[in-house]
């Protein structure tokens, strides 16, 4: 059974890595990418990773040692992510198809799908590239009347877009309580309260509940671990769209895992060193 979040306040652990070299920063993010890291921020001199409360930070220390970079840690409470994001976020626009903005951004006429969001947590590095590619792949699908699962929904952007594209049933799941609450608010803000948002992972979905489309913009480790479950939760003929993976390091590994689990490869896109992929569960 899916578990819905209660009104819980959480602390997070912040790890600041001092590095300004682009290749080193990209490598650092790839190494840190795991299910205990809820997001990243970049400054000119640092990569900041946010860990769930209680996470073992030994891995972070080991990685810092491997790359020979300095780091420090701190415990933080709920920050004003709206202020943080407003300072750094630029809207996302895919020609006249989709425009994603915050309240403080201007409206743009003539856009087919506009999504207005207010985040509680920054998207992190790669947000524009991975989200944009997922939207591009979604545009090629007929979602009208479909059942869609947004696995790792975050702010709910992809779930909201699926709903606006005519999906009959949309479920967004995320095991992070901040993401859960944020996605609920964003669905309401976009007149999409019919979307079912749950604090859950794919393991919590009943075996008999299946979908026409699964969207998974997460990270390589979770994609690999849950590939068999995503296959079982997808109808025959259904589509799997995924991102959150690096072009140079992850594509071959993820494709091999997907094909070993029965998926057929359909398409690959790349942008700013990030990739997105389309697979299908054949009839």
What this model shows, in words?
The protein is of the alpha/beta class. The chain folds into two domains: 12-78, 2-Layer Sandwich (Alpha-Beta Plaits); 129-280, Rossmann fold (3-Layer(aba) Sandwich). The protein is built from eight helices and 14 strands. A hairpin with a 3-residue loop joins strand 5 (92-94) and strand 6. Residues 1-9 and 122-126 have low confidence and may be disordered.
Summarize the structure.
The protein has 283 residues and is α/β, with parallel strands linked by helices.
Describe the secondary structure blueprint for this structure.
Elements: E1 12-18, H1 22-32, E2 37-42, E3 46-52, H2 58-67, E4 71-76, H3 81-88, E5 92-94, E6 98-101, E7 113-116, H4 127-139, E8 147-151, H5 157-164, E9 169-174, H6 177-189, E10 196-199, E11 211-217, H7 220-232, E12 234-246, H8 247-260, E13 264-271, E14 274-280
Parallel strand pairs: 6-7, 8-9, 8-11, 9-10, 11-12
Antiparallel strand pairs: 1-3, 1-4, 2-3, 5-6, 12-14, 13-14
Helix pairs in contact: 1-2, 4-5, 7-8
Counting helices, strands and paired strands, the structural category is alpha/beta
Terminal CA distance reads 28 Å
Number of domains: 2
By DSSP, the count of extended strands is: 14
Stretches where pLDDT falls below 50 for ≥5 residues?
1-9, 122-126
CATH structural class of the largest domain: Alpha Beta
Instruction: Compute the number of helices.
Output: 8
Largest sheet: 7 strands, mixed
Oligomer: single chain
